[in-house]
Write a structure and sequence with these properties.
The complex is a heterodimer of chains A (115) and B (113). Chain A is mainly β and 115 residues long. Chain A has no helices and 12 strands. In chain A, β7 and β8 form a beta hairpin. Chain A starts with a strand and ends with a strand. In chain B, 0% of the residues lie in helices and 49% in strands. Chain B is globular, with a radius of gyration of 13 Å. Chain B starts with a strand and ends with a strand. Classes of the chains: A mainly beta (115), B mainly beta (113). At the A-B interface, β5, β6, β10 and β11 of A face β4, β5, β8 and β9 of B.
């Protein structure tokens, strides 16, 4: 069955520390990959996406993600976290050849940032 | 408009009543999507509209749910005879295509009491 796994429900880091949020997917072929962020009471904001090519993609707010085909992973990273990064982060996939915009989401990782 | 607009932002309704949720997509975006976000199920795809094509309704959880998109712009999601399990945040998104990505609204929080 197709699935998206974010193994960490909640992560706490200190401001200025580095961050890595994990995402693994299970699909027949490499899907399109996305990371979204959601602040309380807000919709989802796209951080970055991977379609093909360079496996290290840069996004907004200083985030980057690396696609690793061998591990079926698309982990999100940031070298130095700011207090404003506290939010919930969602990994999502879209199967190639599927309905445009039909995203499958992980259950999310809640990020808390200590001052 | 500048973003995807959804109304109302919050809705409390009694079990058994019908509700209508509205989505106003970004101007020029031909594709429109509805998703539901609930504690139990996470984020789930509901329905997809693309231009004048027949919508993809495969994600609708029951026949109490329906949606329409008038004039290729504004969309309304209707839930009939609401149940408590319908309580969730309903998110709308629009897009011009996959490369540009999908822009989400802030959602409508529906509470069925």
């Amino acid at each position: 069955a197709q699935s998206v796994t974010q193994p960490d429900i909640h992560i706490t880091v200190s401001e200025g520390a580095s961050l890595e949020l994990r995402c693994n997917y299970s699909y027949g072929a490499t899907p399109y990959l996305f990371w979204y962020v959601q602040s309380p009471g807000q919709g989802l904001q796209l951080l970055l996406k991977y379609f093909s090519g360079d496996t290290l993609v840069q996004g907004i707010k200083g985030f980057e993600a690396e696609f690793k085909r061998s591990q079926s992973s698309f982990n999100l990273r940031k070298p130095s976290v700011h207090w404003s990064d506290a939010a919930e982060y969602f990994c999502a996939v879209e199967a190639r050849g599927s309905t445009l915009g039909r995203l499958y989401f992980g259950r999310g990782t809640q990020l808390t940032v200590w001052p | 408009g500048a973003g995807v607009s959804q109304s109302p932002s919050n809705k409390v309704t009694e079990k058994g009543k019908d509700v209508e949720l509205r989505c106003d997509p970004i101007s020029g975006h031909t594709a429109l999507y509805w998703y539901r976000q609930s504690l139990g199920q996470g984020l789930e795809f509901l329905i997809y509209f693309q231009g004048n094509s027949a919508p993809d309704k495969s994600g609708l959880p029951s026949d109490r749910f329906s949606a329409e998109r008038t004039g290729g712009s504004v969309s309304t999601l209707t839930i009939q005879r609401t149940q408590q399990e319908d309580s969730a945040v309903y998110l709308c998104a629009s897009s011009r295509g996959r490369v540009e990505g999908y822009t989400f609204g802030s959602g409508t929080r529906l509470t069925v009491v």
